[in-house]
């Protein structure tokens, strides 16, 4: 049982916080997740099954590579799934990037970037900035580097991360993570490590699947899914404060935004 989010203390003018449970419908004010006007961003679950169990690790435990669930070794196994038009309809990647509104020169890390689905969009949104697309799977890292070269995205670089932290080459204004949190073996330790790579005023944005979803929803099985409240609790333990949350932007997922407490 996860606790209901307490009333939030809003210290920045652009933040509007609600007191409702993160599992209930509702949304913050439109700017709740946007950049604070300073120099500061599935599983690609394309189908209804998420594919858990198809690539080993069907027990949702550690898959022997430092994270939970199945592996994402070969990008060719996943690219159609992650980049499908069906996913785009509910994932709304452009709306997510627009909501986060990174500055043109922002430095952004896409943590668990997969095939670069969000990373390429962040690179387009921050043409004078730099995007680090981090993944733990060497195959994904190679794939993203090739994609950046093919698409002429000179501000996008792939980076091999570790299970316990991204080991970013330089601090970032925005650390973004979509559909990866529930795979982390020790999310608190992971985001304690991320905190050391955030620039002054830097944000962490997390998108993941709601705990309560219809049976035919895309994404991981219920046993793997985490409520927004559970993620907030872990992030607070890791030294962050919730500064924005979007509960209605996406059909199946929440978007949570944190800053260092
Ligand atoms: C479901 S995919 C999501 C890909 C991408 N974020 C998207 O939305 O399309 C999960 C990705 O997270 C990666 N991953 C899992 N654990 C990780 C970790 N500790 N650090 C970095 N990447 C990780 C996997 O290799 C995989 O590419």
Give me the secondary-structure topology:
Blueprint: H1 75-82, H2 85-91, H3 93-100, E1 107-111, H4 119-125, E2 130-135, H5 138-150, E3 156-160, E4 172-178, H6 187-195, E5 198-209, H7 228-237, E6 240-246, E7 253-260
Parallel strand pairs: 1-2, 1-4, 2-3, 4-5
Antiparallel strand pairs: 5-7, 6-7
The structure holds S-adenosylmethionine.
Question: Descriptors for this entry?
Answer:
globular; Rossmann fold; 261 residues; binds S-adenosylmethionine; single chain; alpha/beta; seven-stranded mixed beta sheet
Most strands sheet: 7 strands, mixed
Please give the CATH architecture.
3-Layer(aba) Sandwich
CATH topology: Rossmann fold
Q: Say which CATH homologous superfamily is assigned.
A: Vaccinia Virus protein VP39
Number of domains: 1
- What count of helical segments does DSSP give? 7
- Strand-residue proportion: 15-25%
Shape: globular
Q: Describe it for me?
A:
The chain is of the alpha/beta class and 261 residues long. The protein has one domain: Rossmann fold, CATH 3.40.50. 24% of the residues lie in helices and 19% in strands. The protein contains seven helices and seven strands; from the N terminus they run αααβαβαββαβαββ. It has a seven-stranded mixed sheet, sandwiched between helices. The longest helix has 13 residues. Bound molecules: S-adenosylmethionine.
């Amino acid at each position: 049982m996860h606790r209901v989010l307490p009333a939030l203390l809003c210290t920045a003018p652009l933040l509007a916080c609600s007191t409702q449970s993160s599992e209930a419908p509702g949304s913050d004010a439109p700017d709740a997740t946007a950049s604070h006007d300073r120099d500061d961003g599935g599983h690609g679950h394309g189908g209804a099954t998420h594919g858990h169990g198809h690539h080993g690790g069907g027990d949702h435990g550690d898959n022997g590579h430092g994270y939970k669930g199945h592996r994402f070794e070969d990008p060719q196994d996943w690219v159609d799934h992650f980049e499908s038009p069906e996913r785009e309809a509910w994932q709304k990647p452009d709306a997510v990037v627009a909501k986060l509104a990174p500055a043109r020169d922002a430095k952004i890390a896409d943590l668990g970037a997969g095939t670069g689905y969000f990373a390429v969009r962040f690179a387009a949104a921050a043409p004078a900035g730099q995007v680090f697309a981090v993944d733990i799977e060497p195959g994904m890292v190679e794939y993203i580097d090739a994609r950046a070269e093919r698409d002429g995205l000179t501000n996008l670089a792939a980076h091999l991360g570790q299970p316990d932290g991204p080991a970013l080459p330089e601090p970032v204004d925005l650390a973004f993570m979509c559909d990866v949190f529930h795979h982390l073996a020790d999310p608190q330790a992971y985001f304690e490590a991320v905190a050391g790579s955030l620039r002054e005023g830097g944000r962490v944005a997390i998108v993941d699947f709601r705990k309560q979803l219809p049976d035919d929803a895309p994404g991981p099985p219920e046993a793997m899914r985490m409520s927004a409240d559970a993620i907030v609790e872990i992030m607070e333990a890791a030294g962050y404060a919730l500064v924005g949350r979007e509960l209605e932007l996406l059909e199946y997922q929440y978007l949570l935004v944190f800053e260092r407490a």
